[in-house]
TrEMBL record:
GO terms for molecular function: ATP binding; ATP-dependent DNA damage sensor activity; damaged DNA binding; hydrolase activity; zinc ion binding. The lineage of its organism: Bacteria, Bacillati, Bacillota, Clostridia, Lachnospirales. Signal peptide: none annotated. This is DNA repair protein RadA. GO terms for cellular component: cytosol. Residues 353-457 are annotated as: Lon-protease-like. Residues 69-217 form the RecA family profile domain. Belongs to the RecA family. RadA subfamily.
Amino acid sequence: MAKGRKTVFFCQECGYESSKWLGQCPGCRQWNTFVEETVSPAPAEQKGAGGGSHRIPDPVPLSQVAVTEEERLHTGIGELDRVLGGGIVGGSMTLVGGDPGIGKSTLLLQMCRHLAETKQVLYISGEESLKQIKLRAQRIGAFEDRLLLLCETNLNVISQVIERKKPDVVVIDSIQTMYNEEVSSAPGSVSQVRESTGVLLQIAKGQGISVFIVGHVTKDGNVAGPRVLEHMVDTVLYFEGDRHASYRILRGVKNRFGSTNEIGVFEMREEGLTEVKNPSEFMLNGKPEGASGSVVACSMEGTRPILIEIQALVCPSNFGIPRRTAAGTDFNRVNLLMAVLEKRLGLHLSSSDAYVNIAGGIRMNEPAIDLGILLAVVSSYRDIVIDDKVMVFGEVGLSGEVRAVSMAEQRVLEARKLGFTTIILPAVCMKNVHNIPEVHLIPVETIKDAVQYLTRK
C-alpha cells in the first residue's frame, strides 16, 4: 500500500466511517452495510482551520440578512415546475432518482431541450455515447445549438469544461459513474459518490450554476450510495411508476425551495414523456360500471386533488386463516379499517378473504381515503353497487367516527369538474364547503351513516 494511505470502512446507507468492519452500523442501525475502501489523507495545507492562510469569516446578525425573492427558471414542463416549487433556482443542486429505464434521462433531456431555447445547457453523460444521446433526442424533437453534450467521467475535466463554457444549467448522468482522481477508490463507491457530489456542489454554489444529477437506486428504492448524498443537495426527486405501465409519477421528497407534497404525472409515449394535465381523469379511465366493490375517493397530493378508484373484493375463505392483501395503500391500515367494520357494524369478515386495490398502480397513503376503503369493502361484502356519480372522502377513527380532512372544498370542486353529482364527506367539513351548485352533499358523522345511505340507494 502506498505511503500515507489507510483502509477505512464506510456504511453504504448513511456514510458512517469506522476504522474496522462492523456488523451493524452505529449510525443507521442497518446490518451488513460496511464496505472497505482505501483513502488518501488530505494535503497538510488543507488540514485544520488554523493554517493561517484561510480568512475566518465574521458572524452576521440575522436581522441584517437581506432576503430577496428567488428568481426561478422555468423548465418548459409544467409538471416538473410544480414539483420544483415553481421552477429552477439559480445555484441549486437537484438529485433525480428512479428505477432503471423509468425515464429519468428522457425527462432531463426534454427539460434541456426547452431550456436551450434561451439558456446555455451542458449535458454530461458517463453512461451513454454521443450517438446514443442523439438517437434518443431525435425521438423528442429538434434541439437548439445552446445544448452542449459531453461524454466524460473525470471530475477534474468536467470542472475545467464548466469553468470554460460557463453554462446556466448542468446535467450529470449519472453521479455513480463520476470519479475524482484525488480519491483512490473505484467509481460508484461511497467515497467517490460523496466527493464527486461535494465538487459539484461547490461548482453550483460558487458559480451560481443549477446542477441536476441522476442517481441510481437500490432494490429498496433508495438512491445508491451514502445517505449523506441526499442531505448535501437542495432537492431530491424520485421518478416512480411501473416501467411496464404508461404513466410515471415525479415526487419530491426534499425541497429547500418549495413543498415536498407536490407530484407531477407523466405518460410515457413513443415521442417521450407527456404531461398529464388532469390526473384524476387519467386514473379513472376504464372504471367499470355497475360493479360492486368499486368506489371513487379523493386524495390530496400537495395542493392537487386526485380522484382514484378503490376496488375491494371480499369472498369466503377456503383456509383457516383468511388472506388480506393491499395494493397501492398501507396493508396495516387496511387491517385496522376492517377491524373497525367488524366491531362497529358487526360484519363477520374474519372468515372472508379481502383484497383491496387502488386502480392504476398509484400509491396513496392519505387518511382521507379511509372512508373509500371501508365503503368498497362493504359494497363487495354485501354485493351493493355504488352509483358511478358518487365520490367519498374522510378519515375514519377506531370508534367508527368520520373525521375531518383538509381542503374539503377543493376535493368537491374537483369531483364536480369530472361530473360527480353526489359527495359523501365528513359532517364537520360542511362548514368549510360553501354552496356549490350541481352537487348533492351527504354529510356523515359515522361509518354507519355512510353505509345506511348506500343501502337506501
